Amino acid sequence: MNSVKGLLAASVISVQNSCFIYPACRNCFSRLILDSRRFNCLKCGCTGEAKDASYRYRLSLKIADTNDLFDITVFGSCLDPFFGVTAENLQRYIQDFNQLSGETNAEASTGALVQAVETCFIGKRFIFGV
Question: What is the per-residue pLDDT for 108?
Fold first, then answer.
């Protein structure tokens, strides 16, 4: 699944999601089901303690080249240089910020992150491996 079939030079038109990090199975990278104490992967059956869950980037974008519009999703560590940290560390920073600030609404604390991501990506041109 990691084989690149071609390259596409395109500009980012919009960011399609506001949640850029997801709890991911270490075996198959599928989204984990988390509760307050445990995680479970519905795809491969992996389980563990919620505090040990791994996190991964998932950034969905609408992009345009000179002829067409595309919806594309960028996964994993290739986004580390753009965010400046791994997805696991960014998730930890967000949790720490919410605890220190007393923020109880997780949605409210993501607004600044969404705005920063939009500023960094929208209108910029990238080469995507597809």
Answer: 61
Work out the end-to-end distance of the chain between its first and last CA atoms, rounded to an integer number of angstroms: 10
Rounded CA gap, 61 and 96, in Å? 28
- Which is it for strands 47-49 and 54-64: parallel, antiparallel or unpaired? unpaired
Given a cut of 80, whether residue 109 has pLDDT beyond it is no
Q: In angstroms, rounded to a whole number, what is the distance separating the alpha carbons of residues 93 and 90?
A: 5
User: Structure pTM?
Assistant: 0.84
Q: Which fold does the domain 7-129 belong to in CATH? A: OB fold (Dihydrolipoamide Acetyltransferase, E2P) (2.40.50)
16-28: pLDDT as tens digits = 988 899 999 999 9
The residues spanned by each domain of the chain are 7-129
Q: How long a stretch of residues is the chain?
A: 130
